[in-house]
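Risk register update: the risk of archive-format incompatibility is retired. Evidence:
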Amino acid sequence: MTIADYCIFASLLVVLLTIAPVKWLGIRSFDNARPRDPHFYDDPLRARAWCAHQNGIESFPFFAVAVLLAEFRESPQNLIDELALLFVLVRIAYVLTYLGDRPTLRSILWVTGFTINVAIFFLPLLQGV
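Archived output:
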């Protein structure tokens, strides 16, 4: 397996670890029988964690497909690995800025992550260069 392959798994972990601590810390008010109860997310930090989690779910498929496509098309593996690792680091920073209520920086990081995904997706075009 490549570094980029491990980054796919790491990206999934970031998605899960975004919401798990919030649920665990709020165990007294979290009802596992109703995990999507909107009242649990009335707290601003919990609401931001939920939104960051949802955004992670939305960004994961494009990242995974971009990495696998670039590898399948035999793009330069070192570039795939570096960009995939950078994406995971940007996603971690994105989650932290979401939790820290820093909307401008969060938006910049979102655009950065999306741009990295686009770059990975189009890496196969470099083969002819």
